[in-house]
# Entry
Amino acid sequence: MKITYEGEDHSGSAHRMLRLTRMDKAVQLTGLSQPELVSFVETLGEPAYRGRQLFGALQHRRLRNFDEITDLPKGLRTRLHEIAGAATLKVESQYTSDDGTRRYLMKTHDNLPVETVFIPEERRDTICFSSQSGCPLQCTFCLTAQLGLLRSLTAGEIVEQIQIALNDAYGIGVKPPRGTNLVAMGAGEPLLNLDELMKALRVMADPQGMHIVPNRVTVSTAGIVPRILELAKTSDRPHLAISLAAPSDELRNELMPINKRWPIDELLSACKVFEKTLKPNERLTFEYVMLDGVNDSDEQARQLANLLNRHNIKSKVNLIPHNPADPLPYRPSSEETVERFKNILESKGIHTYVRRPRGRDIFAACGQLAARQITRNETLVGALN
Ligand code: SAH
# Structure
């Protein structure tokens, strides 16, 4: 059976400006690279350096309002107001977890939910961003699946999520005191929106902008095989993580229906191709959500180790205790079970880590993003918009 995924978006950059213009009656500048901004201001009869200035204001200082870009002439700012936009996402609510994690629930210009999670750690911050509003995949352990796909996000909407989180954490224009890591592990399947995702990552990597380099970015996929192969050919690609969740096709078909389209052997063969592009210190990550009594037995640990050893991929496994949510039919594996599972994998030579859940109390943890409004700890944010 051929399944088509509506989220797959092949629109190239040539059509982007046009599409945005039609969509919004304004060109969205946040998703444009420095050369694109230069061409854009040149179409307004401005010199190239104004484009570079604008890029620095939007991407380095993270300004979201043209009025704040006071080094641009007033006439140009007025013109920009008329024909362009820099802030399309509006923060609707914001939640802070007991562990310091912050979740932002935002809305797009067409009123669709976008969620972003800011996770402070000792030496760095991690921002978990969404690549789509909702998600077309139907993983049974993930709450986002229940939204279905609303639409793929534009490069500008991806960049804006990071700007909003950093501006809230440190203030507009303030350089983050610690490094910023990005993970495409929020809502959506990033590899079904690869063009816009790569465009956003390139804008954010620019040294004259946020300067978040590909080495600081991890993209997680449920296993879109052709896009994994495409990413393997991309020289400025981010790190890759694969959500595995099961050691056999039988169980994976049930938990992650995408497996019927690209079964485990096909997926791991693509990973083997990807492996050839790994840098000396880089490993592919396999994520394994631990579901009590479903995929966490000793036998399944041995099966997983054998599977990974058979394919012999330079990788590591991240065990993620399931983050429960109301309509999901699973419970998290106990700490002891997770530890035992880890020990079995390690005894068979697999590098294994256990991911500590962050922000569970505010529905900010992996698999909990489904635009939930909660009343506890809620602060409405007006100042950010
Ligand atoms: N679509 C992508 C990225 C989003 S999910 C993907 O599938 O990888 C990011 C990670 O969260 C995945 O590894 C997924 O397996 C995990 N996840 C999803 N639901 C979860 C839940 N309820 N508890 C713990 N992890 C979950």
Q: What stands out?
A: Residues 1-23, 376-385 have pLDDT under 50 and may be disordered. The pocket of S-adenosyl-L-homocysteine is lined by residues 141-142, 185, 189, 220-222, 243, 245, 287, 289, 320, 322-323, 366-367 (CB under 6 Å). Residues 64 and 87 are 6 Å apart (CA to CA). The radius of gyration is 21 Å.
